[in-house]
Design goal:
heterodimer, A: mainly beta, Porin, 16-stranded antiparallel barrel, 17 strands, 6% helix, 59% strand, B: alpha/beta, TolA/TonB C-terminal domain, six-stranded mixed beta sheet, 8 helices
Chain lengths: 396, 228
């Protein structure tokens, strides 16, 4: 039933955008804007099954998401809005809609504003936009840095932000900053919770305190932006394993560091980003501890061939070590995932695009922190996986 | 007889000087509720990138964009430094991350002018030759090195009769040096029709700005609307 409703909603989204063009209505003399998006993908692999879908040999179309938002500028400085999001990605999401963001935003000046509610997290170049398919050339962002299956972990927080842009003049550019604090509350249909089921742990709650910041320099070199982000988390998880309550918690705060740069010149666009994620957790009620260390980076380039056609490519590397899994040698396929990607995007109009993408992956990085290859779909792992991804998306 | 001799000369000068006019020149227009007659490039950029919804003089400000066209391309290049695709993505990022709204976009100069004329705080841009009835044309100034210089006294340039009769208009770009006391010390032509420039320079030299901590050099655009 849920899938039928989602399919009807998707058909509606696909059929209507060119007519809707973003709807507005007047409420108490204020304009309320409505916008939405939807995407549908198909993935075929040889090698391993990917992203909790049965992609090997036949392929899978269990790759759907959509969202709808409403926003209004109440006064010159005060804005409010909310977005609802739903998705199905193989065994994840399963069409359980969630509040993607809901924000009260007061901007005192260009250099200082505050937001509160459920706020998208500024972490790296694309954390807050990773699932907005129409904003990117690629059907799948580099999974080592922006894992689709772990979307819930840091895409948004319940809490508050301060933000602003400080203009340093034409010769020095400007700084944009964001600082935030709040808490994370994962969906039980997310990737980490699905992974824990392999050890019979059915998660009831996973989340905790999050705080961090982002600072980016819009340099005086036209088209060049560089920046850095840091996120710290104090997490707790609770589940039921074989009838017994089981807890997991951070011994020291988890941290994520991301450094990035992007450059646009004419029809060319380049991104480079490096991420490190570290956690030290007690698992199974403190019986074991795990030092997990993740390093990931990518380099991407895109070229707009013509108004409606863009091509792109990226190379990404992801490595993981874990004391609990006794995973120390990153040359092993179980400890890394190196991905070479080529992609083409066609925009039929402002609202509708289609993407074709090839992934050539070395490794499957299976450990206590999933990276797209789950044991439930892969009883035995193959060292390499090639994938064809087809995706279409609409937005209005 | 005098006019018959003058006309070919004027035509030659106009042809030489009008290359920049034909290359998508743009003028910025605003609803009369906007108090200022000028706006700095930095403030214009902040309004169109949705960083602020009011000007430094307290006026409400709402950006209005064209969907396409030469004026649209000229505005993006000259004032926002973004391509059309990059700007579209910028606005979509604001809308779908809850950090802003989609600005109004309209398909023609006529619709933009009509919308700006009736909408409080609306600021848009049109082709320099478009008839701007019911709206005011804003002068664009670069931000001064230490402080913004506000225009206190503005003298309108005398439109050369011959060019007005021939309905030849355009925009003159000037580099203006302002003394700390606010007087215009020096004016240099950056671009535009030479005959219109002569009239513009003569008028701008009489302008008076607010005092500032130091000598400032700014860029000023003076539009000549041929449909007056």
């Amino acid at each position: 039933m849920r899938q039928r409703i989602a399919t009807m909603a998707l058909i509606w989204f696909c059929a209507v955008p060119a007519v809707l063009q973003g709807q507005e209505l007047k409420l108490f003399d204020r304009t309320v804007q409505f916008h939405g998006f939807a995407s549908q993908g198909f993935v075929h692999t040889d090698g391993n099954n990917w992203l909790t879908m049965n992609t090997n040999n036949v392929g899978s179309g269990e790759f759907t998401d959509f969202g709808l938002n409403a926003s209004a500028q109440v006064t010159d400085k005060f804005r409010m809005g909310a977005q609802v999001y739903d998705r199905n990605l193989g065994q994840l999401g399963q069409y359980h809609p969630s509040l993607d963001w809901a924000v009260l935003d007061y901007r005192f000046t260009t250099w200082f504003g505050m937001r509160a509610g459920r706020v998208k997290t500024k972490l790296g170049l694309f954390t807050d936009t990773q699932d907005l398919d129409f904003l990117h050339t690629f059907a799948l962002m580099p999974q080592g840095v922006y894992p689709l299956d772990l979307r819930d972990s840091n895409i948004a927080h319940y809490g508050g932000d301060i933000y602003g842009t400080i203009n340093l003049g034409q010769k020095r550019g400007s700084f944009s900053y964001t600082g935030y604090a709040g808490f994370r509350d994962d969906s039980i249909y997310s990737g980490y919770e699905y992974f824990l089921q392999t050890v019979h742990n059915h998660t009831k709650h996973y989340g905790g305190l999050q705080y961090g910041g982002d600072l980016r320099w819009n340099t005086p070199v036209k088209g060049l932006t560089v920046g850095a982000s840091r996120l710290e988390e104090d997490l707790k998880g609770f589940g039921i394993r074989l009838g017994i309550p089981v807890h997991e918690w951070s011994i020291t705060p988890d941290f994520t560091n991301q450094f990035y740069g992007e450059y646009t010149r004419g029809r060319w666009h380049f991104d480079v980003e490096a991420k490190r994620y570290y956690r030290h957790h007690y698992v199974r009620n403190g019986a074991f501890d795990d030092h997990l260390n993740v390093h990931a980076w990518y380099v991407a380039g895109c070229f707009r061939v013509m108004k409606r056609l863009e091509v792109g490519s990226y190379y990404s590397r992801y490595t993981m070590t874990s004391t609990f899994f006794k995973l120390f040698d990153t040359s092993l396929p179980s400890a890394h995932d190196y991905d070479k990607v080529v992609s083409a995007r066609v925009d039929f109009n402002r609202y509708w695009n289609v993407k074709v993408e090839g992934h050539f992956m070395d490794g499957y990085a299976y450990g206590p922190y999933p990276n797209g290859f789950y044991p439930q779909q892969n009883p035995t792992y193959k060292p390499n996986t090639n994938a064809l991804v087809l995706k279409t998306g609409v937005n209005f | 007889m005098k006019n018959q001799t003058l006309l070919p000369l004027v035509a030659a000068v106009v042809l030489l000087g009008s290359v920049q006019v034909l290359a998508g020149e743009v003028k910025v227009i605003a609803n009369p509720s906007v108090r200022s007659d000028s706006i700095t490039v930095a403030e214009l950029r902040s309004v169109f990138l949705e960083e602020k919804r009011s000007l430094s003089d307290g006026s409400h400000a709402e950006p209005v964009l064209a969907r396409s066209g030469a004026a649209h391309q000229a505005f993006l290049k000259q004032y926002l430094g973004k391509s059309e695709e990059a700007l579209e993505n910028y606005y979509r990022t604001l809308v779908f991350t809850g950090t802003g709204l989609m600005p109004k976009t309209l398909p023609s100069d006529t619709e933009i002018i009509a919308y700006v004329a009736k909408t409080r705080g609306a600021i848009g841009y049109v082709d320099v030759n478009a008839a701007a009835e019911g709206v005011k044309v804003l002068t664009i100034a670069q931000t001064g090195s230490k402080a913004e210089r506000h225009l206190i006294t503005r003298v309108e340039p005398e439109y050369p009769e011959t060019l007005q009769r021939l309905q030849i208009g355009g925009t003159v770009r000037l580099s203006v040096t302002i003394s700390p006391k606010g007087a215009v010390e020096n004016v240099t032509l950056l671009g535009g029709n030479p005959i219109l420039a002569e009239a513009a320079i003569k008028a701008v030299k009489q302008w008076v700005y607010s005092p500032g901590p130091s000598r400032t050099t700014i860029e000023v655009t003076v539009p000549f609307e041929s449909h007056r």
